[in-house]
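As a warm-up, study this chain.
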Amino acid sequence: MHPENAKTPAPAVELPPLELLRSFEAAARTLSFTQAAAEVFLTQSAVSRQIQQLEASLGVLLFERRHRALALTEAGRVLQRAVVESLERLRDATARLRAAPAMRQVAITTTPGFASLWLIPRLAHFTADHPLVDVRVSATLDVLDLERSRIDVAVRFVPITRGTGATLFEESVMPLCAPRIAVALHVPGDLVEQTLLTVDMPNHAEAPTVDWEPWLEVMGLSDLRMKNTMRFTQYADAVAAAVAGQGVVIGRLPLLRELVQTGQLVAPFSEGAASRRGYFIETSRRAAGNPDAQDFVRWLRAEAEAAQRG
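Now compare it with the structure written out below.
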């Protein structure tokens, strides 16, 4: 494009002060500076000066001053239509904003495994009883700062010795697999012929069975080596592979209790082991002023108790 063909942006037009337009609208509607002054809580002379100031800034007369009467000029009628339309739109927007209920929200952070395998399948129970509450779930292995991230509730998965807040439940572990895999597993030593499904753990790159260790230790199988290994970054993916019959996963209970109850996964050996880890509920300072967050914590604990009884 040639420079001579380029369009120069139109200069910004400075709008008159809102208080002048408000006085003008009242005067244009009543055709009386005195009545307008009563509406805007000013004196008649103050309104008259405001109209003069507005006319001076626009460079046109807005009223014809007649003996004991006012009449709008053509410029005044143009401005009146624009001001009335703008004020009506402002009133409508203000009314909608005032009528809109404040958004109710509960923000939660937890691990991807807990979110996908335990929380989300149950979440409809909470939202059914709290239809006006938006629930925001941040599923991450990162330990988020609750205050800085504006989060109400955290469900942390940590060693029991490091747990803070209310205990949701402690974890036990045992091998789980699809029924067709379980038929070949009679004693723990049979695992050597199976595929190990495991999860990459931060800072444990050289220990592919770190999530299995509590159970292997209890069973006296610390040196167990399975035929091959499939490693995943997310526990839920390892569980999905087990359900598909691709190997044996270390089952974290109660996270996988429903999959066991429905027969999608079975425990080939009856012995379990405490993992010495658990899920703990932490709340932020903002949760103290959020009744919905407090309801969510009560609901979490009730669901955990019901799952334990089941």
